[in-house]
Each structure stands twice: as C-alpha cells, then as structure tokens.
Design a protein that fits this description.
Structural class: mainly alpha
CATH class of the largest domain: Mainly Alpha
Largest sheet: none
CATH superfamily of the largest domain: Tetracycline Repressor, domain 2
Helix content: over 70%
CATH topology of the largest domain: Tetracycline Repressor, domain 2
CATH architecture of the largest domain: Orthogonal Bundle
Number of helices: 11
Radius of gyration: 20 Å
C-alpha cells in the first residue's frame, strides 16, 4: 500500500510539473486535462485516476507552486545579507526552471479559475515573499549593513523585480547562474549602507 501511495504521489507531482510546463510554453488557456494527458503520454481517463476533477488538479498545481517557493527560503537565523543572497539565488533558479510558476502567480485568469481558497493561497505566496524580503531589508538596516535612507517598503519591489527578471533570463543554466551572481553583486552594492560599501570594495581590491 505504501509503495502504491508513493507511486501515486510521484505521478501527481509529474502531472503538476507538466501543467506548469504547459502554462510556461503555451499559456494558461492551454491547460486542460486533454492537453495535460498529451503532455505526459497518458489518456484523459488516467489523469482522473490521480485527480478527481480539473478543480482538484488546479488545487494540486497551487500546492506544487507553494512547495517550490517555500523551498527557496533560507534559514531565518542567517545574517540578513546572506539570507537575502541565498533567497535571490534559490528563488530565481527555482522559478527560472519552472517559468509556469511566475506566470501563474501573476495571472488574474488563473486566479479566477481557482476556488477562493486556492486563489487566496496563491495571493499568500506573493505576500509571504514580500514579507520575507521586507524582514531581510529591515534587519539589514537595523544592523547598519543596508542603507536606511530609503524605506524598506520602497526597496522590496526592487528586490522582487530583480528576482523576476533573473528568472525570465533566456540564458542556459550555467550562464544564468553567473549572470545571477553578477546582478546580485550590483543589487547589493545599491542596497548596502554607504558606510559599509567602501569597506567591501577595499576587501576586494588586490
């Protein structure tokens, strides 16, 4: 029984990941049970052996989005700048590998197709991200590592927008990682306190 359950759970993850690929490559309107069955080489009936309805499939997609995004949050006890760095690297990589996540989170059409609870959970993903970034920025400002001449609330959209643009990069994985680190250095240079930035520059000088 345990093996059958694991096999079923693995198939459900495969189906939700395929649904995200469809959204990323063909748009949200293309996400149907028929197109999903074709994507994974199953019959439509086989899809319904794993999900009782299209609504259940959509709820599973939301759960998959939550799981992927939650995996990108670093430990809360890390120093604020390291916490922010790890988050940007992990989030841009995870979303870059599954662009359907970004499209779903930003899609009003998908929200309308969901139940209220599913729509609220998707909204919660965005709010959780913003809250995490705000805490990192405020902690960094409190420690004196990040600039405090601008409110954290106005800096947070810059960080979140940077993550989105990095995720949308058409570069190959290895090139994207190098690109992400270069952009991250520039972003942190903008965010750092003027009193801290010169010291960091001197440390990098030969």
């Amino acid at each position: 029984m345990g093996e059958l359950r694991r096999a079923s759970e693995e198939r459900q993850v495969e189906l939700t990941d395929a649904a995200l690929r469809l959204v990323a490559t063909k748009g949200i309107a293309a996400l149907t049970t028929r197109s999903l069955a074709a994507e994974v080489g199953l019959s439509t009936g086989a899809i319904f052996r794993h999900f009782a309805s299209l609504e259940a499939l959509l709820e599973a997609v939301v759960a998959r989005v939550e799981a992927v995004l939650d995996s990108t949050y670093p430990p809360a006890d890390l120093p604020p700048i390291e916490r922010l760095q790890r988050f940007i690297l992990a989030r841009s990589n995870a979303v870059g590998n599954q662009l359907g996540i970004l499209r779903l989170v930003l899609s009003e059409q998908f929200r309308l197709a969901l139940s209220k609870s599913g729509s609220d959970r998707l909204t919660g993903c965005v709010e959780k991200t913003r809250s995490f970034v705000l805490v990192c920025l405020r902690d960094g400002q409190f420690s004196g590592e990040l600039r405090d001449d601008l409110p954290a609330e106005t800096l947070a959209p810059i960080v979140m927008g940077t993550v989105q643009m990095l995720a949308l990069s058409p570069s190959r994985p290895r090139q994207r990682e190098a690109e992400t680190r270069a952009v991250l250095r520039s972003l942190l240079a903008l965010l750092r306190s003027p009193a801290v930035a010169p010291q960091a520059s001197r440390k990098r000088s030969p």
